[in-house]
Design brief:
By secondary structure, this protein is mainly α. The protein is built from four helices and no strands.
Length: 109
């Protein structure tokens, strides 16, 4: 992969990483449940926090993929399909820069 294109993907991935880390940090802030006596309100607040943690987990899973892609860039292995070893096309990487599979292997999945 050309250095210029690789640098573009590296910058894009670094930006995604920063954005995800920011979102995860905000989602893990524990809300003030207060001293409400109303159990329905407390249940609602707890359910909302549980939803936040679930969303944060989804972001963390993507963050792992982004970190893996950045690591591959450093090792010179970025843009190579983990299943068949073919080059992952730029059009796939433009949509999902942390992609581990080429278009053909994604179809087979």
């Amino acid at each position: 992969m050309e250095f210029k294109i690789l640098t573009k993907f590296k910058n894009q991935l670094a930006g995604i990483k920063k954005e995800i880390e920011k979102k995860v940090k905000s989602l893990y802030k524990t809300p003030d449940f207060g001293d409400e006596v109303d159990s329905d309100e407390e249940t609602s607040e707890t359910a909302e926090f549980d939803k936040q943690l679930s969303i944060a987990q989804t972001y963390k899973e993507r963050l792992i993929k982004v970190d893996s892609a950045l690591n591959k860039i450093e090792k010179g292995k970025y843009g190579v399909c983990e299943k068949c070893g073919a080059e992952i096309s730029s059009d796939v990487l433009k949509v999902v820069p942390e992609s581990k599979l080429c278009k053909n292997c994604k179809k087979k999945k």
